[in-house]
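Dear Dr. H.,

I hope your travels went smoothly. While you were away I took the liberty of generating a structure for the chain from your last submission, since the lab meeting agenda had it listed for discussion. I wanted you to have the full record in hand beforehand rather than looking at slides cold. The sequence, exactly as received, is reproduced here:
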Amino acid sequence: MSALLLVLGSAGFAQQEFPSQIWHKGNIYGTDGQGFSGLIKYDLDNNLIQVKGDVIQTLTAANVSYFEIFDEIYGGVRKFYSLPYALNGDYEVPVFFEVLTEGDQIALLCREYIATDARNINTMGGMGMNPFFGPQSMMGYRLAFNYFFFKDGRIERYSLKKRDLFEMLPGYEDEISLFMRKNRLEHDKRGDLLRITAYYNELDQK
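The corresponding predicted structure, in token form, is as follows:
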């Protein structure tokens, strides 16, 4: 029976690939003006990128201005800029941020990471009850994001709390609240935050 459970369990758990784990077509623009094109793999945890041409070169956020990739998993061109930020302490160092949307007043940035995701899994291949042993807790992974707003030359991390969203986007709380209700937008979802920030930039131009 144990061999049967192993086969049934593995059927529901195909290995998931995340964007940072594969090579993407893209371009890199160095701080010295030099450019690279080829297959790119990025590591935001360590602020490193690799470019595969005739050889594989490793570059850090300190010598890259920005890079762009075509993400075949999620589709579309994604752009990452190297910006000074105190990520793990009091000292600012070059850090890679993905730019989701930008305008004259504010830009929405993010940094992705792979988070653990514990849930009850049915070893027959779905969620719910194991027919032999009941609910089974198994560990998986999911793509998660930390969000930041860039305004007046400063980067501020967004807490994903709704009240803090209006502090980050001041002056138009009523307009933004109405926009969110009409379009059924949430304050803590990637695509929704992009639309909200773009709308704020439009309001601030009027």
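Two observations you may find useful: Helices lie at 2-11, 162-168, 173-183, 190-203. Confidence is low (pLDDT under 50) at residues 1-14, 121-134.

With kind regards,
E. W.
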